[in-house]
Amino acid sequence: MSDLLENHIVDVIVLGTLVLSAVWAVLSPRLLRAVIGLAVASCCVTIALFRLDSPLAGVFELSVCAGLISAVFISTISLSQLETEESIAGASKERIRRYWYLPPLLVLVGIAVFQIRLVDFPEVARVGKDVRQVLWTERHLDLLGQVTVLLAGAFGVVVLFKENKKHER
Amino acid sequence: MLALLVLGPIAALLLLNLPWRNVPRWALNASVLSLAFAELFVAVSLPALLSGAGLPLLDQLHFGLVADDLTRIMLAAIGLVLGAATLVGQDSISGDRKHRLFCSLLLVSLTGMNATVLLSDFFSMYVFLEVTAVASFILIAQDRALLAIEGAFRYLILSAVAAVFMLAACGLLVLSAGGTSFDAVRAALSSGTEHGVLARVALGVFVLGMFIKGGVVPFHGWLPGAYGSAPSAVSVLLSGIVTKVSGIYALVRIVHSVYVPDAKLSMVLLVLGTVSILVGAIAALGQTDMKRMLAYSSISQVGYIVLALGAGGELGVVAASFHLFNHAIFKSLLFVVAAAIESRAGTSELSRLGGIGGKMPVTGATATLGMLSAAGIPPFAGFFSKLLIIVALFKSDHTYFAVVAVLASLLTLGYFLSMQRQAFFGKPAEGLEDVTEATSGFLVPALVLATITVFAGVLFPFLLDSSFSFLLLSKSLPW
Amino acid sequence: MNAELLSVYITAIVLVATAGLYYLLVTTNLIRAVIGLELVTKAVTVGLVLAGKLTGNTGLTQTLVITLIVVEVVVMVVAVGLILLGHKHTNGVDVRQLRNIKG
After folding, report:
1. pTM given for the model
2. For residue B64, is it left (φ>0), alpha (ψ between -120 and 50) or beta?
3. Disulfide-capable partner of C3 in A118, B67, B245, C11 (CB 3.0 to 4.6 Å)?
4. Are the CB atoms for B215 and B224 separated by under 8 Å?
């Protein structure tokens, strides 16, 4: 345990913050706070990715998840104007009833998982190519998939977001 | 060469959506239909095409696409259902802009499904299944009806949960096999070390994700809502092929090419299959809406496919593939009929549809053929695929399950007869006096699909020797 | 990577996934359901990258993660679009609408 704290304190802090912000996002009664919790969790994930030798993925995670997704959520919330005082007060008793299982559940699961004995994994030399090479030379099909899904998303935006015109010709 | 099957629809999609002034409906329909035909052509003549020269530009692309006889069956099914959906869409979707979006999304689904049946990597399967799923969500919700939005959202959430399972499985595969391609996984499974065990677990998690996407019990909750509330042309597409490709195809592909289930896994498949069959059939009996009854029937039939895979052996795989194809045909046929009825009578509630067979004779006739095939009556195709499944069960000493399968066929017959009686026979119900036969957009696909299901059945004893023996004898034939 | 650090990673992943799944199952608010989904996806992302780091295959897993992020963004945008559309219908939405979904 002490070895853990000495050498890997950064990792422990990052992962701890991740879990805490995730739990906070789940338990907080205000929707906006939940989104902020999600954004903080995204930042923690980014740092974790950097620590795991995956800088490019970390950058993506930061810009897309922490940035874009939070922006989308916040605009959704403001567009649908959900946060009125009455709704928060009314919902809180219900919430407590539904959510109070979660912290004990998490503690139990956490302890159970932590007890599982694992082996040391030696530092492995990097296998395979660098990420940019992999992306551009090996996984062309996935690239095509990304293009297609983005196209589909564009159609989705048109179908779902465009105002209904009065006349359909 | 195979890459064209995936690039073609995207190219068509881009072409159709350039900022033209106005894309006429016939152009949209023609492009989707021609792609569907091309698909059928490829399915039939694949070996000849593959032995020809490749295109130099395409060789630069490392798509890793493989094709074997299972692929051919899937391509044929995809092409047929897509064609049917296009024709139904032509007649049931009003509004040119809507129709353009519909055809564009059909092309996206086509890309996704083609890629899924051609690829050889588990992660790519996740990507393209999500592509198809996104197209499906948008298609379901395109009319912006509240019920459809709810159905689409529920499907989205469950589909995303399934995706998470698939991704977790990919993570485990990276750990155990060093990669996510079929070859890597096959190597890990046959190595026999703890890598093999982990890879097995990973495959199990992956298949769990597929079951959620495919509507296998107990993950079928989203299915009746989505099928029932979607616009008719979309229901044809969804029930005919999308759920099958998303859900069951991967299982068939895994059993066929990557890993043959051991006794425990086979038992899991057998039990899950049986439960699906029974739950679907019993629930179908109690439905009052035609589309929902058909949705539960789909759940039941998918159970048969899983049962066949549980029976195992090469006969099991052949039976599963054949039943998959047959289901695509007769289920799309029945949904086309439902769409036709809805277009004329304005409803799909069975209680309000009495006697419509008299008013819409061709529709009624094709519906009867479809139902007979689905219920497993000879000489239609459905009978033979069910027979194969039962034989496979007997041969692998699972007689108990075989008996249950036979009894469940009686249930299937039961709910279809009930549908026939309530909707098609008898005196025309009130409000249906002015109903006339459906337009050709519905009749053409109905007739084509009905013909196929009849001929596939009649010719099956002769076909069994030639084409399906390929499946029996060959494992995966790359390129 | 030593065993203890690995345990910490795996515990964190499982906890976040559990929290997200619980949220997804229990909430009646559509937006919260999407947040839960995002949390679970993050857990899987970290898991994937961890698997890559352990086997030395960081290039592959980064590629997978990048693709996965792109796909999930599109799914999320569609989800949000559906929520907003549904909101237009019922105006005041989320809790009541979901009763239909959970039922």
Report:
1. 0.89
2. left
3. A118
4. no
Burial (CB count <10 Å: 0-12, 13-18, 19+), residue B434? exposed
Give residue B380's region: left, alpha or beta (phi > 0; psi -120 to 50).
beta
Cα C21 to Cα C38: distance, rounded to the nearest angstrom:
10
Q: Dump the DSSP string for A20-35.
A: HHHHHHHH-SSHHHHH
In 3D, which of B271, B150, B164, B165 has the Cα closest to residue B216? B271
Task: Mark yes or no for CB contact A140/B62 under 8 Å.
Answer: yes
The verdict on A13 touching C (C-beta cutoff 8 Å) is: no
List, as one string, the DSSP characters of B23-48: --HHHHHHHHHHHHHHHHHHHHHHHH
Inter-helix orientation angle B69-92/B25-50, to 10°: 170
- Cα Rg for chain B, rounded, in angstroms? 21
ipTM of the complex: 0.91
Q: Give pLDDT tens digits along chain B (479 positions).
A: 778 888 888 888 888 888 777 778 888 888 888 888 888 888 887 777 776 666 666 666 777 788 887 888 888 889 989 888 888 888 887 777 888 888 899 999 999 999 998 888 899 999 999 999 999 999 998 888 888 888 899 899 999 999 999 999 999 998 888 888 888 888 888 777 778 888 888 888 898 888 888 888 788 888 888 888 888 888 888 888 888 888 888 888 888 777 777 777 788 888 888 898 999 888 888 888 888 888 888 888 888 998 888 887 778 888 888 899 889 888 999 888 888 888 877 777 777 777 777 777 888 888 888 888 888 888 788 888 888 888 888 888 788 888 888 888 888 888 888 888 887 777 777 666 667 777 777 888 888 888 888 888 887 776 655 555 544 444 333 32
Q: Set out the domains of chain C in order of their start, with CATH numbers.
A: 3-102 (1.10.287.3510)
Nearest to C74 among A3, A80, A149 (CB): A149
Question: Cβ–Cβ of C64/B123 closer than 8 Å?
Answer: yes
Question: Of B282, A61, A85, which Cα lies nearest the Cα of C41?
Answer: A61
